[in-house]
Amino acid sequence: MNLKLFTVRVISTGILLSYTNLLSDFPMPRYTETQCMTANIFFEARGESMKGMQAVAAVTYNRLKSKLYPKDVCSVVFDKNQFSWVKQVDFKYARNILEGDLSDLNQKDTRQYYLAKQIAQQSVKEVSSVLPKGTMWYHTLQVKPRWAKSKIFVKKIGRHLFYTSKKEQK
């Protein structure tokens, strides 16, 4: 996995991901791709089985291979309007998870965090075997997003429905 570092700044509207080293008076946190993937799996699928968590990782990796998305894990995770937790989770809590600070987690969530981290460290091939090639979208059973009508349903894993498009199946 590429070990690019990313800087995250809090701005009035949320999180800004920046590739540059900011020339500021205070140090900015930097996250590796493993940290970004771990947080994404944790926040998107911590209530799911290992297979469900791997499916979230597989979608992230599939997006890396697509021309529609950025070319590194952190940029895919923080891409605008892609993963709901990025906008919904309190920044301090998200930062703690990104940095591996589990002090606010209960025992169950701590176990799920370590499982998410384990999955984030698995090979792309190992994780991607959970879903067909080109599976790049999903949502929980509780929502019915408009975009789903234009996609091809692939499978249900836990409480998530996964999709691809005709173009991505090729």
Q: C-alpha Rg, in Å?
A: 16 Å
What proportion of the residues form beta strands (DSSP E)? 15-25%
Mean pLDDT: 84
Biggest beta sheet summary: 3 strands, antiparallel
Number of structurally distinct domains: 1
Question: Strand sequence of the main sheet, in spatial order?
Answer: 2-1-3
Molecular shape? globular
Secondary structure topology:
Blueprint: E1 6-11, E2 14-18, E3 30-31, H1 33-45, H2 50-65, H3 73-77, H4 84-88, H5 91-98, H6 107-120, H7 124-128, E4 137-140, E5 152-157, E6 160-164, H8 166-169
Antiparallel strand pairs: 1-2, 1-3, 4-6, 5-6
Helix pairs in contact: 1-2, 1-6, 2-6
Description:
With 170 residues, this protein is an alpha+beta fold. It has one domain: Cell wall hydrolase SleB, domain 1 (Arc Repressor Mutant, subunit A), CATH 1.10.10. The chain has a three-stranded antiparallel sheet. A hairpin with a 2-residue loop joins strand 1 and strand 2. Helix 1 crosses helix 2 and helix 2 packs across helix 6. 31% of the residues are buried. About 12% of the residues have low confidence.
